[in-house]
């Protein structure tokens, strides 16, 4: 018999009820913080940084997140040193989303850990699951990319604009497309 509450189920990757009162309250609190963040004047860098530190599970010293930015819970997001996102990035962090050092994310990208059952009857009960997303060090993600649940992107990789990443992408490659696939290996001194 499963004695886990809905939050514990969510964090362990099991089916959970997203309408659970605790989860709804946590998402609402996160939305309020995102609203506050997105309405700070862009010049208020110190205040913006402090708010992200309150919101995220882990940050390093150097990071910059352009406005607007949106997430579900915040506490499941961990960012490494020298992290940057451009405008309109969405992180649905029902599971952990981990970004390494020197990660650069272009505008209009989405990182989605939540999944929904294919079976309509189960899906209509409000049940979903979540799988973590991991982005390695020195990764550049081009504009308009979608990163789906359970994906790992290796170190030193470039994901081309408009890609839909449905499966793991190894280290040291250029990958793009829908679905995203490896196009070529990247050598240390290679330029585009």
Q: How would you describe this protein?
A:
This protein has four helices and 19 strands. The protein has helices spanning 6-12, 21-38, 45-55, 120-123, and strands at 16-17, 63-65, 69-71, 77-79, 83-85, 89-92, 97-99, 104-105, 110-112, 114-115, 127-130, 133-135, 140-141, 146-147, 152-153, 158-159, 164-165, 173-177, 180-185. Strands 2-5-8-13-16-18-19 form a seven-stranded mixed sheet, with no helix packed on it. A five-stranded parallel sheet has the order 3-6-9-14-17. A hairpin with a 2-residue loop joins strand 18 and strand 19 (180-185). Helix 2 packs antiparallel against helix 3.
Helix content: 10-25%
Can you tell me the residue ranges where pLDDT is under 50 for at least 5 consecutive residues?
none
Enumerate how many helices there are, as a single number.
Answer: 4
Describe the main β-sheet briefly: 7 strands, mixed
> Approximately what portion of the residues adopt beta-strand conformation?
25-35%
**Large-scale geometry:** globular
Number of strands: 19
Query: What is the H/E string?
Result: HEHHEEEEEEEEEHEEEEEEEEE
Alpha-beta content class: alpha/beta
Rounded to the nearest angstrom, the radius of gyration is 17 Å
**Alpha-carbon distance between the two ends:** 55 Å
User: How are the strands of the largest sheet arranged?
Assistant: 2-5-8-13-16-18-19
The multimeric state of the shown protein is single chain
Q: Mean pLDDT, nearest integer?
A: 95
